[in-house]
Amino acid sequence: MTQRPDLNQLSTDQLRALAMELLDRVESKDRVLAHRDAVIEKLTHEIAILKRHKFARRSEQLDGHQGLLLEELVDSDIAAIEAELAELAETLPPDTKPKQQPKRAPLPPELPRTLIHHEPDDTQCRCGCQLKRIGEDVSEKLDYVPGVFTVERHIRGKWACNQCGTLTQAPVPAQVIDKGIPTSGLLAQVLVAKYADHLPLYRQERIFGRAGLTIARSTLAQWVGACGVQLQPLADALRIAMLEHGVLHADETPVNMLAPGKKKTHKAYVWAYSTTPFSDLKATVYDFAPSRAGEHARTFLGDWQGKLVCDDYAGYKAGFGKGIIEIGCMAHARRKLYDLHVANQSTLAEQALEYIKLLYQVEQEAKDLTPEQRKFMRATQAKPIAEALHKWMLTQRQKVPDGSGTAKTLDYSLKRWVALTRYLDDGAVPIDNNWVENQIRPWAMGRNNWLFAGSLRSGQRAAAIMTLIQSAKLNGHDPYAYLKDVLSRLPTQKNSAIDELLPHNWKPAIKL
Asked: Which of 67, 219, 448, 473 holds its CA 20 to 30 A away from the CA of 428?
């Protein structure tokens, strides 16, 4: 304990300095409290809007499957906000903390039970006496493997000392959803089915019903929202790890987003960033944004400086010349030529495609080489082909009229030639952006089932969870096994050791 100074022994200057120090502490504490209160007020307002939409008149909501999907997203958002408010509530005085949730109905007795006993490591009392078992606390968790529900029955024995009355009991195992019924396995199943298999929650509700227990989609949505809050730090940590690499891919795709209370959608965008196929880190990170504005890419990349493989979208260009080097996509150039050939049976486009085919043959032969070997092979085999193609294009461009389809196609490559051929000088750089285009396909597939994102929050939650699922796949992991283990360990994982749970570092703590 810090000893209090004797104010009678302090000089006027010392008293003045002490008063200033105390005022600074009070002001600092006031700022922290003001920020906490502002966050609570913001979240409370947001949850009020969501609840108003959830319980609005049916005529004001969407019909059919769209209505079901939107209700799922609203419930997930509400659960996510409540999870954030619960964390903030830990700093509130006891009399202002939210009331406990009502008790839930017991799990069906006909479901198979697995007994899991939790007993103290030591049953010797501190006074020297042997503790005696005087009872137990029992809690149940709902588990699921495809097609079958089971119940984990956790039994915590109570041990007491006859001499001094000491009561000892094993602690309650930490859970992602505090006092919730789902095991990490059931939560992982719901997340993987929704974000990897593209099954909306109303469909999962029916599947679970056929397995013997119907779980309301509102409950499933609450689980999804709570898990999204807990998994977000992992996605953030993976972004930091990815930005330590000098060559990245970037691409974006539209997703319809519906603001609560409105029937109209507008285009939001998912931005995908990934390491290259040549990188030792296998990772893809998604970023959900309300628009396609280039500021979202600049915010995500931050101070990162390196080589960015991307298409010709203007949103990336603000970063070029500020430490980011543009790497063009040869596949886009080839696509333009192919479209010209298909539309007009252009022999000129066909000749250009033959040149590009030779460049890709070199890449196929060099894909398993080291960056140094790949650079040498490109210099000796691909560079002469690229130079010949460039010279040929310049010659052909002089022969075609301005404004024609052929001129526009040639101009696309000629104007970007420096960026298109930078890969030749770096064996760690890929020839095109196809890798990240493949990583963004799950969103295109999901759109057919989701129809839209219900809010910016739900889109960001989907981005975080799909980041972990896709990166787990890239590292050869079963997404279900990965998420099940991570959700089991996350509640007790130290922040300083969070990187251990990232897909490229992950090793299961227990045999799955």
From this structure: 473
